[in-house]
């Protein structure tokens, strides 16, 4: 079981063992470690840092104990925004001698340190960490089942985009398309974004958006982007069907009914446009930008009411 999972585990065998250790051997190095872990789970960050520091000092020759203590101390420091200290802790973990295959703790430390670098906007170092995680899991394939290996390729796409390393980002897009079991649609979608917005290939980008939606009809970002592209192209007849798919993904998003009603109106379909405008009134416009993943920001309610008053009597 990954330490990255155990950091938030508040029940189960590991947690029970920590409770027993802290009670049965409270003054031993492992008992102190267990106390630090339990303090972390209770968000007592200063106490957990002190416990892990004591566990390390009391038995510095125990490589396993020291490595795990630095790892969890790093999490404590991260959670209270002591980022430099967290980086130092995770780096200490990585300095312990590994066998031929990287261990879980080593991989977890890479992930956690990468998360810290991302938080402080050192994106190049964050990307290096994610890349090393990918390579480490290639070397120790029996651990892949415990990690979201495909997501790390997605994360690296985002980091390379931020760093403007577009060729490298496209390599991960292609990897997802060819190798992924669960995130193939994201490979198509992000490749479409690069083609449409950066590589002066709008048609190629549009084709990739379509493939993303075909591969995963629940990919809301792909569906919303297809609607945007079709609107720009003036191909209004195709839009309602994609908005219908989007509504299946987010049925509580009133702005989608409003948008579909608007395009029905553009096509001269008053019956369906009025039906959708009325349906849109059932849903709040609060948090629309968050709930629509940033694709919509308008308050649809005034427009829907106005449309109904004029066209749907």
Automatic annotation (TrEMBL):
Top-level taxonomic group: Bacteria
GO biological process: negative regulation of DNA-templated transcription
Record key words, sorted: TPR repeat
Pfam families: TPR_8
Repeat positions for TPR: 67-100
Name of the protein: Uncharacterized protein
Source species of the chain: Leptospira neocaledonica
